[in-house]
Predict the structure.
Amino acid sequence: MSVIILLISASTLVAGVFLFAFIWAARTGQFDDDRSPAVRILNDDSPATPSPSKKQ
Amino acid sequence: MPTTTLTACYHCGEPCVEDHVAMDGKDFCCQGCKAVYGLLRDSGLKNYYELEQRPGTRTVANADEARTELFDLPEVRDKLVEFSEDGITRVKLQVPQMHCSSCIWLLENLERLEPAVVRSRVRFSEKELTVNFREGDLSLGRLIGLLRNIGYGPQLTGSAKKKSGKKVDRMLYVRLGVAGFCFGNTMFLSFPEYFGATLENDTLVKGFVLLKILLALPVVFFAGRVFFTSAWAGVRSRSINIDQPIAVGIMALFFQSLYEVLAQTGPGYFDSLAGLVFFLLIGRWFQDYTYQALSFDRDLDDFLPLVVLRRNGDTEEYVGVADLNVGDTIIVRDQELVPVDGILRHGTGRIDNSFITGEPLPVRRAIGETIKAGGRQRGAAIEVEVLLPFAKSHLKRLWEEQRETGDERPMMPRTMDLVARRFIVAVFTIAALSAVYWWLHEPARAWPVVTAVLIVACPCALALSMPFAYGHTIRLLGKNGLFLRDADVVERMANVDAVVFDKTGTLTAREAWGVRFEGAPLSAHEKSLVRSLARHSTHPLSAVLYADLKAPLADAVDVGETPGQGIRGTLRGVETSLGNAAFSHAPSLTTIPGEAYVFIALDGVYRGRFAIRKKARDGMAESVMNTSKYAATYLLTGDTSVDADTARMFTPGNMVTGCTPPEKAKFVSGLRNAGSTVMMVGDGLNDAGALKQSDVGVTVSESSAALTPASDAIIEAGALHKLPHMLRLGRKAHRIVFASLVLSLAYNVVGLAFAVSGNLTPIIAAILMPLSSVTVVTFVSIAVWGAARQENLAK
């Protein structure tokens, strides 16, 4: 039985980590705009000028 | 005018006229588009044309634009710049023209066009562009000039820095995440019970139950808080809303479960509780969708120029509009707005009042005459003496009237809240009756039955049907060019039984004209002369003639324009003049109100005149006729008469002419007092009062960049012909909500049957609740989509 307790706590912990990741993402505004990031991924780095780091 | 074979411009997709330009084997509708293409090609940005087809916007000279050098004045620059440090400056600009992937791509690659740009980022949902640039190498004015050159001129107005509109509620996402997390895990921990494990025989289940209590706490006190706040707000204002039975249901679920666990009589309903809150929050999130890039509320400052040029004797200086004093002389140049009431002191005023009235034809003003604030000068610069400061101007008064009348409109109670009222009464009656029954027969079960009734009667499906039905409707209407402020507008729209149209600017387009020639018909040769000469004139009527006449162009020499009089030039050896009657030596002729005339003389001999009048938009007559099948239609106009074409669209008694703005507002409130639900469709500031008075105020917008008065909805001018279908979709959405109410009530009845008989076990609650929510949401979504398909609005 103890193995189940271990499994439950481990899985809840993992789920908790994802929950906090989600909360962090939502609070830093990553769900504010759902259009431009999707397009941004298509941007090629230009050969002429090195593109500045795409930091969000 | 488009010719028979239409070629779409490679840059903007507009049809190319016969004298269009070509480059690299590609067709362009105008020099502007070709220039942008050339610029992008030379900068290695041709990718712009590969991401999407014909992504550009036509670079039209926008009347709102101030000269770029203005932005380098310290007082203007400081208003716009957000941040400036170590030579790097950041500005946030509104760019309403952005509409597709190509736009985002180009705007985020500005550094390839201009090396002084360090970084540019787009926030598409707000149509906002943030640019960091080295101000030492690139002035703000030149940056704005660059954006204009590529067709993305930012929208810059008096209030300059855009007040941030309604931001996405980030907290709602967090609540959703928490509720979802707790829902999933609670469900998971409830599995042993679903398969028959009970508290007595399994210690593991006891541990699970404790975990479930822990998970239920954030669900009730954090995620579910929105329902308690809204329910409490209702209690305080002594009104009933749908969140009250929900709050009662949540509390009943939570405390009953807690009691059962502590008294060790059962596992509780924690799974249903978490599921309920999660589904309800999804409904909220779906409904809260708004058009963030559109402003439904406006400040008058938004319409004013950033600065005005004031003349002090021989020197000129830029000052803010608020700093102008009575007696100051200001200089208003071509395409600039007159921000104050004043007297014309120098030059010829050709004032376009389209912003106020929707009327695009400029009015002539001579020296000594007054000019009202809000007019736009078209033509050479004029000097105006300030008569009234801005705060007392005609424009400001109009605006204030709109604001004052706006507060009087009583809000219609929402259907949902009306239903909630009956619902609450019914639920409490049933709870009381079953309590009495069980008290008489088996007193121990009375309390559990009451809580079971409160739990199962929680109008979860009921509360989901409206957000989903109206949320879908808002999105579908938005795709078709009608943008609603919020879900309540859909409901008011469904009840509309009177539609009031403004004439100028609404039924008639700013750019649609009817042209008639009076006199012996012109030969092709003569038409060519007139059209070629009209091309050289800046007068709007010349532009109409140029677009309307179909004739090849000829070269003109010795062209001279007398502002306010006409234009004269020699073409193919013929001295041609276009202008007013005196300029073209015309005899005195009768004029019809609402028509403007251009008189033609060839070699000094009067040849005839063009009568130009505004034409109704394409498909408008049909649209009005179709609307009148469902609702009474009315026409309000400030003009003294209505032309025959427009008159045919309306019942004779339903047209009111010579309306002042307050009269328009009064007419609308009169209709409302007579019991009608009124939709007002208008465009100019003179309709603002009527828009506010109506149940659904719809503003017509010629372009997404245009400034519109405050309203409940904004419709693209090109979508006006779909208005009857949109009205019908609103009605159908309302009926769908009612149908789903029946469906969810059926579920409630089934649940109540279990509850009053004392058989509501946790597993039945856990099945019934999500099942009812999912069926209602599915039904509503499919039904709204089907209704939109019937109305040809599904895309």
